[in-house]
Amino acid sequence: MPGNRVTMADVARRAGVSPTTASFVLSGRTDMRISEAARDKVLEAARDLGYRPNVTARSLRTKSSQTIGFVSDTITTTPFAGEVIRGALNVAREKEHLLFITETGGDRAVESDLVNALLDRQVDAVIYAAMYTHYVTPPRSCTVGAWFCSTAWLQASTLRP
């Protein structure tokens, strides 16, 4: 399917404008002098072609993936768990982020793999929610070096007594 994706260049071609003009219009830039007619052509071409922005390309430029990882040992049907997930979803949506929900099943190896997979996808933050209080070891990339990992711990602690 990625080979069939409509690109900004396709939109520019259809609208008869430069790719730069199409980019300015589609990104909502209003500080550039673009005629209303050109703007309308770009928006119409984008709509007709079914253009969708490439969020991966945008994340490289903005240094934000607009995604949050949610790691839980057990996704349960308890009212508390449901409210935690709903709250995380609501806040993510308010901040125009997407929430990736993962479940470890209580397996430390799976937990490590999932957290690393989320970090590999450049999530902006990780929420760790556990059903029962226990200790976890955050990935080294979240605790050492220049790379920063925003993390919220619910029912989990990184500090041992």
From TrEMBL:
<dbReference type="GO" id="GO:0000976">
    <property type="term" value="F:transcription cis-regulatory region binding"/>
</dbReference>
<keyword id="KW-0678">Repressor</keyword>
<keyword id="KW-0238">DNA-binding</keyword>
<dbReference type="Pfam" id="PF00356">
    <property type="entry name" value="LacI"/>
</dbReference>
<dbReference type="InterPro" id="IPR010982">
    <property type="entry name" value="Lambda_DNA-bd_dom_sf"/>
</dbReference>
<feature type="domain" description="HTH lacI-type">
    <location>
        <begin position="6"/>
        <end position="62"/>
    </location>
</feature>
<protein>
    <recommendedName>
        <fullName>HTH lacI-type domain-containing protein</fullName>
    </recommendedName>
</protein>
<dbReference type="GO" id="GO:0003700">
    <property type="term" value="F:DNA-binding transcription factor activity"/>
</dbReference>
<dbReference type="InterPro" id="IPR000843">
    <property type="entry name" value="HTH_LacI"/>
</dbReference>
<keyword id="KW-0805">Transcription regulation</keyword>
<dbReference type="InterPro" id="IPR028082">
    <property type="entry name" value="Peripla_BP_I"/>
</dbReference>
<keyword id="KW-0804">Transcription</keyword>
